[in-house]
Amino acid sequence: QVRFVESGGGLVQAGGSLRLSCTTSARAFGDSSMGWFRQAPGKVRVLVAAISQNGDGQYYDDSVKGRSTISRDNAKNTVYLRMNSLKPEDTAVYYCNSHPITYSWGQGTQVTVSS
Length: 115
Fold this sequence. Notes:
Blueprint: E1 4-7, E2 10-13, E3 18-24, E4 34-39, E5 46-51, E6 58-60, E7 68-73, E8 78-83, E9 92-98, E10 109-114
Parallel strand pairs: 2-10
Antiparallel strand pairs: 1-3, 3-8, 4-5, 4-9, 5-6, 7-8, 9-10
């Protein structure tokens, strides 16, 4: 069973930065595009960033574009999301999964941005 373990979230003031990490047990990690998703309270889970199998292609939702960088280390089965200039509206639980979604969700990591 494939598992995702997200980490790196926390409480940060507006304008601050965080780097989220997601490690997976998926043996086919290097063959999959990966995405970071977030779910704010009372809202649906949405894709905020994605990265191709070898890392040479990235996608960013307009809400994080210019403030975030997605990257991956296939040797470590890990995908990262660096977020700068954090805003209160970035408050959410952040999850990773393949893109398109193939596997069950992990528990996510909570990001809380205070104003």
